[in-house]
Design goal:
Largest sheet: 5 strands, antiparallel
Strand content: 35-45%
Distance between the termini: 18 Å
Helix content: 10-25%
Number of helices: 3
Shape: globular
Order of helices and strands: HEEEEEHEEEEEH
Length: 149
């Protein structure tokens, strides 16, 4: 990655321009980082269940999976079901440790213990509490990059 700084007289607001041959995952990662720059990171967030509103710490979050029309939120302290779209959940919580691993799931990277090969090129992520979730090939490259592989 290359970067430069230019002084622009009379321009008080910071302007960032990204240039690349095509919009790829690297550009999207930088855009996501810039979007969150200066915002506080959520450490505690509410989950509205049928019975109550449960406050959950991101550190306790293991995985989030779509199950029918609901989200199943797995934590170290229990499992919660809520009616919310996965993308809205991800935007609402907005935490760098929360990674999308398939079209239907997110994991907390801090809860990942290991990855093992699965069928058809997918991987299985084994998380805290022996929780297993499928990592699709589409998202595997991003996960490997986040792990430094």
């Amino acid at each position: 990655m290359k970067w430069s700084f230019e002084v622009s007289d009379g321009q008080a607001e910071l302007e960032v321009i990204l240039r690349k041959a095509r919009l790829d995952q690297e550009v999207q990662d930088v855009m996501a980082y810039l979007e969150g720059f200066g915002q506080s990171v959520t450490e505690l967030f509410p989950i509205k269940t049928a019975e109550r509103v449960q406050l959950v710490s991101v550190a306790d979050l293991i995985a989030v999976e779509v199950d029918g029309g609901e989200l199943q939120v797995l934590t170290t302290k229990g499992s919660y079901r809520t009616v919310e779209r996965l993308i809205h959940f991800q935007e609402r919580v907005h935490h760098p440790d929360l990674l999308q691993i398939s079209r239907y799931g997110l994991i907390n990277i801090k809860q990942l213990q290991y990855l093992e090969h699965s069928f058809s090129g997918n991987m299985t992520a084994v998380l805290t509490g022996k929780t297993k979730v499928t990592v699709s090939r589409r998202y595997l490259k991003y996960l490997e990059k986040k792990l430094g592989l």
